[in-house]
């Protein structure tokens, strides 16, 4: 159980285009999903917290108009990188939170490798 | 600001030996800690967690130790296998249920056959 998927796994796009990344919890409902960014050989940096049915909460320094997050259902959150530039190239990872009595754990997706040419 | 870090960026261990990965955290208010394993090109995988009211927790071949006095966390992997080769991250959370995780810098563990 607790499987999180991301699509696509890899994407290459031209500078100036927008890219949408999907994050799905496959066998559970997640009221909260998170989006992280990871540079090569670096740690994960939280970009935003996404709550179903409400606006995402962005971390300091993350442009909300640049990284659009939509959490339309309990199993799907999307991250759209708008007007992508080469510096947006990175590994984007989502996680979904399971919270119940005695359990509060984030399960991570496999990540999406974005390359902007 | 507050941060979570690791003492060693890389660690090589002979297959079958035990390994210990260390993590130092600076936020004394943190109440919940998790270890994740990340293989190349994949997302982090939950290994084990511990709350601040405990100093030790065991799983299958893994043990997490927490020393709040010196703000130190460690992950012990027993009888290492080639599949244990990965980058290991510790993460801290202000409280169980708080949601927001702060990740350490990671340690690359390499198991030598």
Name the features.
A: 117 residues; mainly beta; seven-stranded mixed beta sheet; B: 113 residues; six-stranded mixed beta sheet
Estimate the strand proportion of chain A.
over 45%
Question: Which structural category do the helix and sheet elements of chain A fall into?
Answer: mainly beta
User: What order do the SSEs of chain A take from the amino end to the carboxyl end, as H and E?
Assistant: EEEEEEEEEEE
The profile of the biggest β sheet of chain A is: 7 strands, mixed
Tertiary shape of chain B: globular
Describe the SSE topology:
The complex is a heterodimer of chains A (117) and B (113).
Chain A: E1 4-7, E2 10-13, E3 19-25, E4 32-38, E5 44-51, E6 57-58, E7 67-73, E8 76-81, E9 90-100, E10 103-108, E11 112-116
Parallel strand pairs in A: 2-11
Antiparallel strand pairs in A: 1-3, 3-8, 4-5, 4-9, 5-6, 7-8, 9-10, 9-11
Chain B: E1 4-5, E2 10-14, E3 19-25, E4 32-38, E5 45-51, E6 56-58, E7 62-67, E8 72-77, E9 86-93, E10 101-103, E11 107-112
Parallel strand pairs in B: 2-11
Antiparallel strand pairs in B: 1-3, 3-8, 4-5, 4-9, 6-7, 7-8, 9-10, 9-11
Protein described:
The complex is a heterodimer of chains A (117) and B (113). With 117 residues, chain A is an all-beta fold. Chain A is 0% helix and 57% strand. Chain A has strands spanning 4-7, 10-13, 19-25, 32-38, 44-51, 57-58, 67-73, 76-81, 90-100, 103-108, 112-116. In chain A, strands 2, 4, 5, 6, 9, 10 and 11 form a 7-stranded mixed beta sheet that branches. In chain A, strands 1-3-8-7 form a 4-stranded antiparallel beta sheet, with no helix packed on it. With 113 residues, chain B is an all-beta fold. Chain B has strands at 4-5, 10-14, 19-25, 32-38, 45-51, 56-58, 62-67, 72-77, 86-93, 101-103, 107-112. In chain B, strand 7 (62-67) and strand 8 (72-77) form a beta hairpin. The chains are: A mainly beta (117), B mainly beta (113). Chain A binds chain B through residues 4, 6, 32, 34, 42-46, 49, 93, 95, 97, 99, 104-111, 113, and chain B through 32, 34, 36, 41-46, 49, 89, 96-97, 99-106.
């Amino acid at each position: 159980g607790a499987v999180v998927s991301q699509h696509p796994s890899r994407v290459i796009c031209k500078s100036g285009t927008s890219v949408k990344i999907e994050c799905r919890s496959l066998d559970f409902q997640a009221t909260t999903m998170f989006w992280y960014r990871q540079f090569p050989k670096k740690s994960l940096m939280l970009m935003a917290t996404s709550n179903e049915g409400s606006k995402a909460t962005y971390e300091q320094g993350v442009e909300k108009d640049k990284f659009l997050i939509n959490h339309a259902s309990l199993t799907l959150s999307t991250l759209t990188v708008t007007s992508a530039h080469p510096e947006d190239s990175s590994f984007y990872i989502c996680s979904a939170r399971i919270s119940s009595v005695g359990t509060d754990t984030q399960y991570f997706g496999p990540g999406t490798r974005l390359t902007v040419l | 600001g507050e941060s979570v870090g690791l003492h060693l960026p890389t660690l090589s261990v002979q297959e079958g030996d035990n390994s210990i990965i260390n993590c130092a955290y600076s936020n004394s208010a943190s109440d919940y800690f998790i270890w994740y394993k990340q293989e190349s090109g994949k997302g982090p995988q939950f290994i084990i967690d511990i709350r601040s009211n405990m100093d030790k927790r065991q799983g299958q071949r893994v043990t997490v130790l927490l020393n709040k006095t010196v703000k130190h966390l460690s992950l012990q992997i027993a009888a290492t296998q080639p599949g244990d080769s990965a980058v290991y991250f510790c993460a801290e959370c202000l409280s169980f249920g708080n949601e927001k995780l702060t990740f350490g810098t990671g340690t690359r563990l390499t198991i030598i056959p």
